[in-house]
Design brief:
The chain is mainly β. It is built from one helix and 20 strands. Helix content is 6%, strand content 51%. The strands form five sheets. It has a four-stranded antiparallel sheet with strand order 1-20-19-18, with no helix packed on it. A four-stranded antiparallel sheet has the order 2-3-4-5, with no helix packed on it. It has a four-stranded antiparallel sheet with strand order 6-7-8-9, with no helix packed on it.
Length: 293
């Protein structure tokens, strides 16, 4: 009997271990374009077919492109369809400290919301090539650190817009999550800050959960990447799960994330890097399949 109990416990542990969700690398590719405005990409909005996408640049540009895939859905290449400057409310191209676009999210009507740091704000674009529309800003945005503003922007399944800054102000302070709905901002909850990782983007998946992209950096090792997933409910965030944590230098400066479901029903997580317009870095896509979801 003791042996039977031991066998049952061991098998249960094996099943539990196998069921732990994790992101498995499926494919990756480097992307370059001759246009001098190309680079510094951050934020990522992906079409439901996993091919068409939009991104913004920390030098005040937007890009629209598409991804080609092989028969198995793996990344084959990326093509730039259009690129142009982001404009201010005045309709003029952004300049100086106003240009640093970091987060991008599309609402149900296809309008783009872009978050900026430096001059911390969120703006709405009915078309990325057109003028910005004002979005109210709470006083909390004024207290964000100068180079650590609103990195993550995502629409939740409730239709609300969620914004998360890169830093929380203290190592033991949760990252604040700001929510915009019915024309007002509030800060309903925070996300646990863990180690040296800082927020770089976020996306809601087809499962309704929040996927948080984070990065760390050291001069000799380069960047490392982490993705955590959270359930959101009336009581805030719960069910924190680490899905990916890379080694230093394994990826580049990943600043965009999009979570989608392919025709086979698999959840895929697409990451996009910011090359900082630095020749030793690259613009790259890396796509993972979520196993044991």
């Amino acid at each position: 009997m003791r042996a039977l109990i031991l066998l049952v416990l061991t098998c249960s542990a094996c099943v539990a271990g196998a069921a732990s969700p994790q992101m498995t690398l499926d494919s990756e590719l480097s992307w370059s374009e001759p246009d001098p405005a190309f680079g510094g990409l951050s934020g990522l909005a992906l079409d439901s077919d996993g091919r068409g996408f939009r991104a913004v640049s920390d030098r005040g540009s937007w890009v629209r492109g598409h991804i080609s895939r092989d028969a198995g859905g793996r990344l084959e290449g990326a093509t730039l369809d259009a690129i142009g400057p982001l404009h201010g409310v005045s309709g003029q191209p952004l300049t100086d400290v106003d240009v640093d676009a970091e987060g991008l999210a599309l609402d149900a009507e296809g309008r783009a919301y872009v978050s900026f740091e430096g001059f911390h704000r969120v703006r709405r674009y009915d078309g990325l090539d057109g003028p910005a529309q004002r979005v109210p800003s709470p006083s909390a945005f004024e207290r964000l650190q100068r180079n650590s503003g609103l990195e993550a922007l995502a629409f939740g399944p409730d239709g609300a817009l969620y914004a998360i800054p890169e830093r929380s102000g203290q190592l033991d302070r949760p990252f604040p999550v700001y929510r915009f709905r019915d024309g007002r901002w509030d800060q309903p909850f925070g996300l646990r800050r863990d180690g040296a990782f800082l927020v770089s983007d976020a996306s809601f998946g087809p499962d309704g959960r929040l996927y948080l992209l984070e990065r760390d950096f050291e001069w000799l090792g380069g960047f490392r990447t982490r993705v955590r997933r959270f359930d959101l409910g009336p009581g805030g965030a719960s069910g924190e799960t680490t899905l990916l944590e890379t080694r230093f230098g394994e990826l580049d400066n990943m600043e965009g994330i999009a979570v989608w479901r392919d025709p086979a029903g698999h959840t895929r997580v697409l990451l996009l890097s910011d090359d900082n317009f630095f020749p030793l870095q690259r613009t790259m896509f890396a796509e993972y399949v979520l196993r044991a979801d």
